[in-house]
Design a protein that fits this description.
Elements: H1 16-25, H2 40-43, H3 57-68, H4 77-101, H5 107-125, H6 131-139, H7 148-168, H8 172-175, H9 177-188, H10 193-208, H11 213-228, H12 233-249, E1 277-283, H13 288-304, E2 309-315, H14 320-330, E3 336-337, H15 349-353, E4 361-365, E5 371-373, H16 379-389, H17 393-399
Parallel strand pairs: 1-2, 2-3
Antiparallel strand pairs: 1-4, 4-5
């Protein structure tokens, strides 16, 4: 998974200082969130955060501006992180004082709200334990904010923080209760594209958790109808984009639709699979893990084919000649579905229809035609076949006198 660099946000001003800070922070996104206090020698070269003044709102804004543009910039990642975290915490305190001293319709009040959000979001990105809860509380207090864009940003960040915490547990049952709350927010703000993206990401991440397919399917079922009703074309487009993923994650317990053309050029007839246990394998010759699994998949095929096991490969290759040469050289015995793509990328209709975004992806189908699982690779496939088909034909043959 790609890592997004930590945002510098309000605490680093443009020009040379911003470039230096961004370069330092961009290499720290995967580091642990906790930062130790700098050593005495390092502290001498780290800008200090002065005490919060007891002044007017204008004085407090000037204080925040000084925090954002220190006289001396830190020269190491550790010192920079240490300073930015302290500056963000001090900015939250200063912004709260401004908010307490100004009416909601005051321009200074509105600016303080934006500054507080930037600071809380920076603290969250740095892993500050209380930042997520503070963002959630902040999002619920914005009834009189005049800037719709700011409301959307705060709401989105608060939801993202809750999603991170829920998915971070690694247990779908912990994350599932958040689905209803996120769906309610999406329904209340149907045109908020950022919120919709956060909700869609939530459902996709649920599907990536072990055993998370049903929770993800429930999330997609809750979110997609709201996306489709949106007046924002970007939100409606998102519903179409994730529709395939939703269909794939809802497959267990339901039939899968397999259509297309065999590599030989003949139309594929799904009725030929009736009564068989079938593994549908989305793969490509350029996919290293896909190629690496062919030997073990062939072994399972040879053991179980006589007892009713079939494999159907769905190739995402772009070049037919390369695929044909590979299939011939490897002597792959099972049928391969292939469609000549109309452009670059994964253009097989089945891959698009079922939202395939990574390969190898497999789907195991039972004798009744319903999908059993989306997680049947390696040893899991062998265990599933033994459970479904008894013992492989070669073992039965060994027992005959």
């Amino acid at each position: 998974m790609s890592v997004v660099p930590l945002p510098v946000r309000r605490f680093v001003m443009p020009a040379v200082a911003a470039v230096a800070c961004t370069a330092l922070l961009a290499t720290t996104a995967a580091e642990p969130a906790a930062d130790a206090s700098p050593s005495p020698q390092a502290a001498a070269r780290t800008p200090t955060v002065p005490p919060l003044p007891d002044g007017t709102p204008a004085d407090l804004l000037a204080y925040i501006d000084k925090l954002a543009d220190p006289a001396a910039m830190p020269t190491s990642r550790g010192r920079l992180r240490y300073y930015l975290r302290r500056a963000a915490a001090a900015t939250v305190e200063a912004a709260d004082k401004i908010l307490s001293q100004t009416p909601p319709d005051d321009a200074l009040h509105q600016r303080a709200l934006a500054l507080k959000f930037d600071a809380l979001e920076t603290l969250r990105q740095f892993g500050e334990p209380q930042a997520a809860a503070a963002l959630a509380a902040f999002a619920e207090s914005l009834d009189q904010v005049h800037d719709p864009a700011l409301v959307a940003r705060v709401r989105g960040a608060a939801v993202a923080a809750q999603v991170d915490a829920a998915v971070g547990s690694g247990r779908p049952e912990d994350a599932a209760p958040l689905v209803a709350r996120v769906a309610a927010l999406v329904k209340a703000a149907p045109d908020d594209a950022e919120l919709a993206k956060t909700a869609a990401d939530f459902a996709i991440r649920l599907g990536g958790l072990p055993g998370g397919e049903s929770a993800a399917a429930a999330a997609f079922a809750a979110f997609i109808p709201e996306f489709e009703r949106s007046g924002n074309p970007a939100v409606r487009d998102l519903a179409e984009q994730i529709g395939g993923t939703a269909r794939r994650l809802s497959l267990p317990g339901n039939p899968i639709k397999l259509t297309g053309t065999l590599l030989s050029g003949e139309p594929f007839d799904q009725t030929s699979l009736a009564g068989k246990v079938v593994l549908v394998d989305f793969w490509a010759t350029w996919c290293g893990p896909c190629v690496a699994e062919i030997a073990s998949l062939r072994k399972e095929y040879e053991q179980w084919h006589a007892k009713g096991f079939e494999v159907v490969g769905v190739s995402l290759d772009e070049d037919r000649d390369t695929l044909e040469q590979f299939v011939k050289a490897k002597e792959i015995p099972w049928p391969i579905l292939y469609e000549q793509p109309g452009g670059p990328g994964w253009r097989h209709p089945l891959a698009t229809y079922y939202g395939i975004t990574g390969i190898p992806t497999v789907v195991l189908i039972g004798r009744d035609g319903n999908v059993i699982t989306l997680d049947a690779r390696g040893k899991k496939l062998g265990a599933a076949l033994e459970r479904l088909l008894g013992e492989p034909a070669d073992r039965l043959g060994d027992r005959r006198p």
